[in-house]
Amino acid sequence: MNSSLVLPLLVVVTLAAIALAVILPRLTGESRTDKRRRALIKNPAVSKQSRQERSREAMRRQAIAEGLRDLRKRGEAKKDLGIETLLEQAGLPWSKQQFQLYSLLVGLVLGLVVFIALRNIYAAAAFAGLTGWIVPKWYVKRARAKRFAAFVAELPNALDILVRGVRAGLGPNQCFEIIGRETKEPVRSEFLAISEAQRYGLSLSDAVQKLTERMPISEANFFAIAIVLQSKTGGKLAEIMDGLSKVVRQRKQMKAKISAYSAEAKTSSGIIGALPVFVLGSLQYSSPDYVAPLWNTNVGLMGLAGAVCWIGLGAFIIKKMSNFEI
What we know:
This is Type II secretion system F family protein. By secondary structure, this protein is an all-alpha fold.
């Protein structure tokens, strides 16, 4: 191409682009839309309504932020859980002294079994101390997790009862009493606790926030935030609880799908953790003299402890990789 034609061609293309940008909105009607929007904004009545809507939205967001901030502060205060809190959340009727007694008994019994099997006082003492500290706490945390799962499974039914009761004209406290009669544990006891707290003079928001201390899970936090939001900004409680019930059910379905997808990884971690134990047990049964140095020498015991630690670490990593937060 002749270089003398490049500059005029660029000018023509630029002018055409400018003309297209000016004419195209008129052809598509966008300019009329913009003019109408500007006219509505200049209208005093519309501007006032828009300001009111923005004000209500700002109040709603501020209430949500305050509710989340309060719940976050409560969660941070309860982050380092003591054994009394764990026992309460697990629903176990034990005191701290009973838990310590059970820990001591478990350690002594399992340590005695190891001493009878190995005739090694050091290994028995180490095993007794380790299991006496780990096994009872593991049992409490497992009971706590099962109680949380049962609460999440039954919560949508409780929310449905609350929605129907509010639409029928009942107050929230009356609905909580009905939930306490009609639902299963632990939802029954938790909602009865909310109702009882209100009878003692606690506000609904404070009583529900106590629930998040006993049930530090996302679903309970959602419920508390919804109640706090409704009490501060107003709104239809039935519609809010109806939406929350759908959210909880969808989260439950998502967790079930993730559990199904991660089943292979969890099975692999179980096989990896059990295979060395199975091989060692088979060798102990078929060739005890071959495995004897592992139990009767300090080097063997150190190697055994290291193997247990590394296998446990591998199984722990696989388990963490297969867990998903929703």
